[in-house]
Amino acid sequence: MTLVAPPESAGRIRVDTLIRLRWLAIAGQTAALLIIAFGLSFPLPIAWCVTAVAASVWLNIGLRLRYPVTHRLAEREATLLLAFDMLQLTALLYLTGGLENPFSILFLAPVMISAVSLSVTRTVALVVLMVACATFLGFFQRPLPWYPGIVLQLPYLYKIGVWIALVLGAVFITIYAFRVAEEARRLSDALTATELVLAREQHLTQLDGLAAAAAHELGTPLATITLVVKEMRKQLSADATIAEDLDLLTTELQRCRTILGKLTSLGDEPAQHWDVLSLPQLLEETLEPSRDFGVELKSEIQGEGTPPNCRRNPGLLYGLGNLVENAVDFAKVEVRIKANWTKDQVGITIEDDGPGFSADVLTKIGDPYITTRGGHDERRAKSEPGSGLGLGLFIAKTLLERTGATISMGNAVAPNAGARISIRWSREDFERGTMSDGPVHAD
């Protein structure tokens, strides 16, 4: 399967987002300065503070004029803008007490934005800049604004504590926010890949509807042509040459009507035999594409009474086929597929004799973009882009769960080796499928 990678701009931060956040910061900084200078009447270098705030205002205006609202910044541009915000905050804190100012915690805001939106390298660079700015403020700053005539001098140990808290906070936020954002990006990419698979299968499913619609539209003009040919035959019966042409035209019209009848049946007869699979037929159709890759496929079918039937479902076929292919890719000699059923349950188990799932990822199996196996020999899927990242298992698991299946993945119990995947349905869900309102039965 070929997956379409998301656009490069998909992970970039919008300039409008940074502009809005900066306006919020400007409003907060302005309100704090007004309260301190005029509400509390604390001595404050108001002119320099206003200059620092004005720099952010002019930057926002320039960005708004330069870029459209939907523009997404490159990583370098976003990093420079976040670095500016950090330096502007450093200037304000220098004028208002440095690390003694409780608003020094706002150093963490640009770091968090970077961790969510930018690469690790860019985020680490901003963390280093933040540590440098915090260190500078630990040694150089103007006095903390306080009541006139009173100098508030906090212990130097307090500054060290604030510095350590900022550094640890930045490291924690960077790691946590980046992990959360990375998982969200991987999940989004995997869901996009799943939707691409389903869209492709949906387009194939819709072809029969388009064929039926075309047949319906062409039926009327063909009927008109048939009527005209009959009238011409009555009027020109004496002309042998024209009569032969009319016979040929009548024959071809009949062929067209037969073909249109077949096309119409694709949309009008949803329960035809090729739309229904028994469990053995489903198993055989799933195994067939994987028989020529040097691994023996052993199938075992057993159950109570008549095997259950299901609708031909592209998601079901793709999901099972993907799991079988994965087992073939990692197996040493053989893959065992067991199908069984009772009056209430239907199950399929896929086992291989390969290395099995690694112990450190057993709890993450089915999540996208994780390496799911230990050592293995190179086979078909391993040469494809993104192989070994767990995306195939994620898509297969998602598609099968949409049919009502419950899936468990693990390793075989000793002394056996290899991976073991069990898929279970209630018989009602299996026979109903995802495209039917009730159980179906083969003719």
Distance between the termini: 33 Å
Unreliable segments of 5+ consecutive residues: 1-10, 267-273, 374-389, 434-443
Instruction: For the largest sheet, list the strands in their spatial order.
Output: 2-4-5-7-6
The secondary-structure element order is HHHHHHHEHEEHEEHEEH
Number of helices: 11
Kindly provide the radius of gyration, computed on alpha-carbon positions and rounded to a whole number of angstroms.
35 Å
| General shape | elongated
Number of strands: 7
Strand content: 5-15%
State mean pLDDT (0 to 100 scale).
Answer: 79
Category from helices, strands and their pairing: alpha+beta
* Major pleated sheet: 5 strands, mixed
Helix content: 55-70%
Q: Characteristics of this structure?
A:
five-stranded mixed β-sheet; about 450 residues; disordered C terminus; elongated; disordered N terminus; alpha+beta
Write up what this structure looks like.
By secondary structure, the protein is α+β, with helices and mostly antiparallel strands. 56% of the residues lie in helices and 10% in strands. The chain has helices at residues 15-39, 46-66, 75-95, 108-117, 120-139, 156-235, 240-268, 279-287, 314-330, 391-402, 427-432, and strands spanning 276-278, 296-303, 309-311, 334-341, 345-352, 406-411, 419-426. The strands form two sheets. Strands 2-4-5-7-6 form a five-stranded mixed β-sheet. It has a two-stranded antiparallel ribbon with strand order 1-3. Helix 3 (75-95) runs antiparallel to helix 4 and helix 5 (120-139) runs antiparallel to helix 6. The longest helix has 80 residues, at 156-235. The two termini are 33 Å apart.
